[in-house]
Amino acid sequence: xxxxxxxKIKRNIxxxxxxxxFLLRHLMRRIGFDMKSxxxxxxxxxxxxxxxxxxxxxxxxxxxxVIAELRVEFVSGIGYMGVSGSDGHLxxxxxxxxxxxxxxxxxxxxxxxxxxxxxxxxxELFDLRYGYTDRPTEVEAYRYAVEEAKRIGMTDDEIFxxxxxxxxxxxxxxxxxxxxxxxxx
Length: 185
Known about the structure:
Blueprint: H1 3-30, E1 40-41, H2 42-45, H3 53-59, H4 63-69, E2 71-75, E3 81-83, E4 90-93, H5 94-99, H6 102-120, H7 136-151, H8 156-163, H9 170-179
Parallel strand pairs: 2-4
Antiparallel strand pairs: 1-2, 3-4
Helix pairs in contact: 3-6, 6-7
């Protein structure tokens, strides 16, 4: 294929792109998808979190307002939870909610609500100048989750296990645990 043919094909695709996008959006609307993610009121799916002691300590007088305004997006596939860097809503894996350990899910919600507070305060959640376990926003969120884990009676061994993730090296896992006052095994 000559360079001229490649240019013609590229221009043809570029010319058709707006129409293809229009047709794709139309198709997705017809089958029930929206090009934007769908979010739902957090409190409708996580009832009672506006009355959880750890959440009240986190948000103080703003607890009721923050929880009432918070949105959640459920996604399929693998993963756990996170906070959208664009608007601060929670992103939660439906599979994790179905198959995860309830105590881990609870602590992850506390962890992610810490990120919601950070987002609302203007912090950069994904500051790439730091590695994951050194990022100030992550350390604070883990610290808060660990405090809650201790409050509900988890042992250091259980908390150490909770802190372990697939994306963390053994060295980083141990270092994070030690920085949070958890004795590594």
